[in-house]
Amino acid sequence: MQVSLGDAPADWIMTFGMTVNTITLTSSTGDTVSVLPTASPMEMMQLMATVQPISSVAVPQGTYTQATVTFSAVALGYLDPVSHTYTQKTMPGPYSATVPFSPAMTVGTSPMALNVDMNMGSSVSIDGSGNVTLTPTLTAAMASAPGTGMNPWQGTMQQRLGAVSSISGSQFTMGSMMGMQTATFTTNSSTQFAGTGFTGMGSMSTGMLVGVDAALQADGTYLAQRVESMGSGTTGMMGGGLVTAITGNPPTQLTMVANAGQGGGMMASSIGGTLTVAIPASTPYSMDTDGMDLTALPFTPAFGPTSLAKGQRVQVVSGGGMMGGGMMGGTGSLTASQLRLEQQGFHGTASGYTANGSQATFTLTLPPDAAFATLTGTTTLQVYQQTGTQLHGLTTLANGNGVVVRGLLFDDAGTYRLVASWIALP
């Protein structure tokens, strides 16, 4: 069974880092089974319209009626709606939530996925004095794991970041800072290898930073569908997050709120802190186009010095440097050797839906308290539903629907345009 966590949106929150301590299933006979081998850090706000694996374990066959999740060390970051300053709160916990299964979950001989969503809007509240209250509200859904495709709700990983810890023949093991701490992947002749000079398992080395797409197989192993090299974790690091400020034209520096990372100097305690990134003129820009359909658009999707913008989620690859600080008030700095535009999620209401064959466009109106709106002054996004855009939890989209959209956000001469990889119910 693959156990994954996801986020139902609370738009005013920018980061929500926590340590998941235990996840326990209760059977119809009252027996309990732990499905989390080790406590794992997670950052939830990057998971809008997707889920991330936190464990993959063997579970005894039978019927299960609920899960209990405990976590602690919560670090919350948000933009103050009045001062527009980034504000952080810590909540030590511990916290516990019971998630009933309706219907009950039956575990048989076939692999399956258990997806647990934290409803941030119901879980976290803040009053006029800035006091934050956390009452965890979670839901759960089960799905089969067919062993193919790239549906994250059905036992797959998408762009799972980590550092290679061991290599044996056609297999490699990878450690990650967040979510599933260790995973072993098998490669075959269909596995795609991407990255400069990265042509196959013979090019892999321990310490290498990689992003992996993989699917859970019937025997409980993961088959790597795509492996991308992102540098060496022994001399460099990756830090991901939301851009909050840009200096220079062309940009020479950016500030972001960190919600992901890997490599030397990057720690789970860095999540939620601010990161200052120096951008040399020679820094290459790229896009995470994995699973994206960028064809036949009415604008040219681009990411570079003239289209880097506040509110975008980016990944910084650094060949060196040191990450400092931590969740609460910490500030780190590094020099970018690469900047990459990453997929991100937005929640809102659809209007002006216009179909054109297998494509469509619509306006996504964001909630007025959305951090993106506070940060950028923009309350609407133009969304492009492509032939390759996948739907989760809905079959059609209509005006007035509340949806969560995930994809790449482009700044097209001052207009924000979001090309969707996924559209899901909130």
Instruction: Report Rg.
Output: 21 Å
Low-pLDDT residue intervals, each spanning 5 or more residues? 320-329
| Structural classification | mainly beta
Strand order of the largest sheet: 22-25-23-19-20-21-24
Distance between the termini: 24 Å
**Helix count, per DSSP?**
2
Q: Approximately how much beta-strand content do the residues carry?
A: over 45%
Strand segment tally: 30
Proportion in helices: under 10%
Give the biggest beta sheet.
7 strands, mixed
| Integer count of domains | 4
* Average pLDDT for all residues: 90
Domain DUF5666: 162-228
Pfam families: DUF5666
InterPro entries: DUF5666
Organism: Geothrix rubra
What does this structure look like?
This protein is mainly beta and 426 residues long. It folds into 4 domains: 2-144; 153-232, Nucleic acid-binding proteins (OB fold (Dihydrolipoamide Acetyltransferase, E2P)); 237-341, no CATH class; 344-424, Nucleic acid-binding proteins (OB fold (Dihydrolipoamide Acetyltransferase, E2P)), CATH 2.40.50.140. Helices cover 2% and strands 56% of the residues. The protein is built from 2 helices and 30 strands. The strands form 6 sheets. It has a 7-stranded mixed sheet, with no helix packed on it. Strands 2, 3, 4, 6, 7 and 8 form a 6-stranded antiparallel sheet that branches. Strands 13-14-15-18-17 form a 5-stranded mixed barrel. The two termini are 24 Å apart. Residues 320-329 have low confidence and may be disordered.
Short recap of the structure:
The protein has helices spanning 120-123, 371-376; strands at 2-8, 13-27, 32-34, 40-43, 51-56, 62-79, 86-91, 95-107, 112-119, 124-126, 132-134, 138-144, 156-168, 171-175, 182-186, 192-194, 208-216, 222-232, 237-247, 253-263, 274-278, 285-287, 313-318, 331-335, 338-341, 344-356, 359-365, 380-392, 402-412, 415-424. It has 426 residues and is mostly beta strands.
